[in-house]
Every structure is written in C-alpha cells, then in structure tokens.
C-alpha cells in the first residue's frame, strides 16, 4: 500500500511541475495555474474587496457594485459608475514593492478618458508609484506608468502607451510588467504590445498615500478621475511573470469565492 501511495504522490508532483502548478498555489480552495511565489495581493472582486493572497491586504468598497463578469456570471466582478466609486486598498508598504512588478487585471471600459484601473500610491496632484489605465492622451490608449513624486505632468511620470485605442464595452485582460525604471512590457489579452515611451521620470518614488482601484488624480489642481465600467481579478506580483504564466492567469476561472480568504 505504501508503495502505491508513494507512486501516486510522485505522479501528482510530476504533473504539477508539468502544468506549472506549485504546491503553494492553493488559494481559498482554488488552485491557481501558476506559482504564488512573490504574490503580494489577489483581489477576485467577487462581491467584496478581500485579498485572497493570504497577506491580509483587504480593501474597502466605496460605491462599487457587484457586476456580471466576462463569462456572463452575475456578481463575480465589480462595476464603477465613473462618478465617485472606488476601492481603497490601504497604504501598506507591501503594496509598494520595488522592481520588478507585475499587475494583471480584467477590465471593461465605458469611456476613453480618465480611466485609471489601479494605482498603488494615490497622492493628490502628484505622480507616485504604479499607475495602470486606458486614458493615454485621453483617447482610450492602454497606458502603464510609474511616478517620481513630481506634479501630474509628463515630467512626473514615465509611461508606455499602446495604440490604437480599445473598444468600449468589451472585456480586456491587461498585464503590466515593470522590469526596472526603463523597461516595461504591456500585454493585452495575453499578447505583448508595441508602444511608445512617454514622460521623463527616471526613478519610481512612493509616498504614504493609499492604493486604489478605480480612482486617480491625473490633472494638477483638478478633481480626481473615477473609472467607469467593470473591473475583475486583479493580481499584484513582486516578480516578472512569463508570457506563459500570463496566458494561464488570463484563462483562469473559478467558482466565486464566498468564504473568508486564507
């Protein structure tokens, strides 16, 4: 009996390595298709803003409502009205890592300007930390940036902008990889995108501001912008994901989480 048990366990380990599933990839009963090594936070946004990474970085919802996800299932995503809805993730230093950084998230936009999906360091009138959105030049271009603590101008950030623009009311999976202060990668629906550099920052700086989903200040001395549309399945890693890992996360589905995260 022991011999057969050892053989079975060995086969399971081999299969796990073949399919890229590590032993630590179990999150609240769901097995992620990639290793959770260096996973900082995971927000399924299944009717709440809990962090299911095990790091306890839970958020607080302000106005956002449960919404139908990309698979037409009711409630496993969050809808933001573009007026004052957002999620406050707090200002833990864990959410503000050094390079390399990877962020993956699903979104469906309903307008092409002022559409910041995620920022890990909000600071009114200034660019700090990582910014991901579809508001490049106000024309709906996917855009990933980091801030150097300067005013909300091109001198306060460095960005990669992908053209042409996105289509409204369509789900997209965006992945931002910040390898260092000069090298970025932007994936849309699992495919790496060409883009143009924009901005003059040369280093990333953090302040004590909070991380937000759906809210950011992109204009000096003006009210903040709020995302209009739906957001789902946000991952934050302190490492660079491979193209294969990005594809696997993009194709990952699970039953909506209903219990408390691990």
Short précis:
The protein contains two helices and 20 strands. With 262 residues, the protein is mainly beta. Residues 1-21 have low confidence and may be disordered.
Describe, in plain words, how this protein is organized in 3D.
The structure is a single chain. The protein is mainly β. It has a single domain, classed as Jelly Rolls. The protein has two helices and 20 strands. Strands 3, 5, 6, 8, 13, 14, 15 and 20 form an eight-stranded antiparallel sheet that branches. The longest helix has 17 residues, at 2-18. The protein starts with a helix and ends in a 12-residue tail after the last helix. The relative contact order is 0.22.
Helix fraction, binned, reads under 10%
Class, according to the CATH hierarchy? Mainly Beta
- Regions with little confidence, pLDDT below 50 for 5+ residues: 1-21
Alpha-carbon Rg, integer: 18 Å
Strand content: 35-45%
User: In total, how many domains does the architecture comprise?
Assistant: 1
Please state the structural category: mainly beta
CATH architecture: Sandwich
* Series of secondary-structure elements, N-terminal to C-terminal: HEEEEEEEEEEEEEEEEEEEEH
Write down the overall geometry.
globular
The tally of strands reads: 20
């Amino acid at each position: 009996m022991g011999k057969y048990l050892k053989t079975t366990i060995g086969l399971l380990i081999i299969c796990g390595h073949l399919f890229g599933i590590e032993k630590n990839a179990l999150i609240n009963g769901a097995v992620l298709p990639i290793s959770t090594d260096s996973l900082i936070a995971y927000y399924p946004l299944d009717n709440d803003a809990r962090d299911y990474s095990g790091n306890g970085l839970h958020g607080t919802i302000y106005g956002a409502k449960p919404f139908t996800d990309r698979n037409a299932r009711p409630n496993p995503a969050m809808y933001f009205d573009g007026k004052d809805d957002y999620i406050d993730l707090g200002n833990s230093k864990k959410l503000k890592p050094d390079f390399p950084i990877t962020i993956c998230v699903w979104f469906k936009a309903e307008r092409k300007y002022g559409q910041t999906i995620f920022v890990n360091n909000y600071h009114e009138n200034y660019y700090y930390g990582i910014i991901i959105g579809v508001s490049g030049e106000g024309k709906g271009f996917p855009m990933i940036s980091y801030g150097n603590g300067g005013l909300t101008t091109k001198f306060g950030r460095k960005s990669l902008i992908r053209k042409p623009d996105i289509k409204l009311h369509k789900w997209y999976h965006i992945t931002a990889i910040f390898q260092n202060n000069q090298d970025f990668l932007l994936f849309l629906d699992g495919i790496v995108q060409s883009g143009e550099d924009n901005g003059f920052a040369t280093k990333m700086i953090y302040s004590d501001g909070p991380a937000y989903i759906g809210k950011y200040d992109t204009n000096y001395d003006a009210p903040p912008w709020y995302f209009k549309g739906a957001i789902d399945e946000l991952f934050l890693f302190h490492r660079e994901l491979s193209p294969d890992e990005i594809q696997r996360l993009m194709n990952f589905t699970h039953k909506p989480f209903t219990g408390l995260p691990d």
